[in-house]
From TrEMBL:
The lineage of its organism: Bacteria, Pseudomonadati, Pseudomonadota, Alphaproteobacteria, Rhodobacterales. Residues 2-78 form the 2Fe-2S ferredoxin-type domain. This is Carbon-monoxide dehydrogenase small subunit. GO terms for molecular function: 2 iron, 2 sulfur cluster binding; metal ion binding; oxidoreductase activity. Pfam families: Fer2, Fer2_2. The keyword Cell cycle does not apply. InterPro entries: 2Fe-2S-bd, 2Fe-2S-bd_dom_sf, 2Fe-2S_ferredoxin-like_sf, 2Fe-2S_ferredoxin-type, Beta-grasp_dom_sf, Diverse_Oxidoreductases. It comes from the Bacteria.
């Protein structure tokens, strides 16, 4: 067993993990932060995206012990301090960027990272950035619209609609 200490959504946490424990399992099982979803266990779907030291990471591909000493942000930590939705979360709600909601936490975390890196991305840049996140319901159009809106840009009509 390994002792780990990290800051998750601004709070210091500690735990005991086996060397093989994935970060996603530590977050979900030990910390009960179940918003980070497990969709594929092979890093292909993006439902498990969290931020580790400010960078988007697929938590099913990182060992919990590797996060020792890190700052981790999950979907549960994205709301504003007053409990209201973040700009990205609100845009997903306003522009119907979700259907079943399974991919939504990973999409929101990816979108947040993209907007930090590129505050005014084009539609093509958004689609390219989301390449590692799979949604089986929406066809991505409303997800892209949501991210455009969150960036403060006009939401264009999209060709495939």
């Amino acid at each position: 067993m390994n002792s780990i200490k990290l800051r998750v959504n601004g709070k210091e946490v500690t735990g005991q993990v086996e060397g093989r424990t994935l970060l996603v399992d530590f977050l979900r099982k030990d910390l009960r932060l179940t918003g980070t979803h497990v969709g594929c266990d092979t890093t292909q779907c993006g439902a498990c995206v969290v931020h580790v030291n400010g960078e988007p990471v697929k938590a099913c591909a990182m060992l919990a012990a590797e996060a020792d000493g890190a700052e981790v942000a999950t979907i549960e930590g994205q709301a504003n301090a007053d409990g209201s939705l973040s700009v990205v979360q609100q845009a997903f709600q306003d522009h119907h960027g979700l259907q079943c909601g399974f991919c939504t936490p990973g999409m929101v975390m990816a979108a947040t990272a993209l907007l930090k890196e590129n505050p005014k991305p084009s539609e093509a840049e958004i689609r390219e950035y989301l390449d590692g996140n799979i949604c089986r319901c929406t066809g991505y159009h409303n997800i892209v619209k949501s991210i455009m809106a969150a960036s403060g840009q006009d939401v264009p009509a999209m060709a495939a609609e």
